[in-house]
Amino acid sequence: MNSSSFPDSLQRSGGAPSAVEVRRSARRRRTVSAYREGDRTVVLIPARMSADEEARWVNVMLDKLAAQESRRMLGDADLAERAAQLSAQYLGGRARPASVRWVTNQNTRWGSCTPAEGSIRLSHRLQGMPEYVVDYVLLHELAHLLVPGHGPAFWQLLEGYPRTERARGFLEGVVAAERLPHLPVTGDGPAAPGSAG
Ligand SMILES: [Zn+2]
């Protein structure tokens, strides 16, 4: 087994560049694996792999690790913190949820809230989606704590968020891809009192 190191040129947003160490193993025939070790990424490859294959597999494994890591669930505490930031940034801090949490029993809505309780629930299906999408759904529910329904006053609250259209497009794409009935985040229709979506 020998080692070589080179910088990770595929710097990802939010992530510091990290070193990649490639380890070749004669025992390893086909499989490639990778893991993080401190601030380095170790990629294990078969000894006989060519330099081109090595470069290709390193990229594949870095993407795979990054995807796994982005899917890692923000905890409920992280969600609450994010909600506070979004409220401060876009709603003048006026939306103050008492609780923000993930739920797994919500498959037809991306988010919901109960203004009387100040509670917000986000579907676990959002986990792994881009941050700007999760932020949009969270901000949408925060805005519902201030304004029920989807009238002009509601959308005015969201005007400051620059990626509303993009996020809605992303979610519509997800729904279309899953061939589910059309259930956009804002398509909750006339919400029942206390359960605006
Ligand atoms: Zn809504």
TrEMBL record:
Composition bias, Polar residues: 1-12
Domain YgjP-like metallopeptidase: 96-165
Region Disordered: start-end pairs: 1-25
Superkingdom in the source lineage: Bacteria
InterPro entries: UTP_pyrophosphatase-like, YgjP-like_metallopeptidase
Coiled coil (UniProt feature): none
PANTHER family: UNCHARACTERIZED PROTEIN YGJP, UTP PYROPHOSPHATASE
Protein name as catalogued: M48 family metallopeptidase
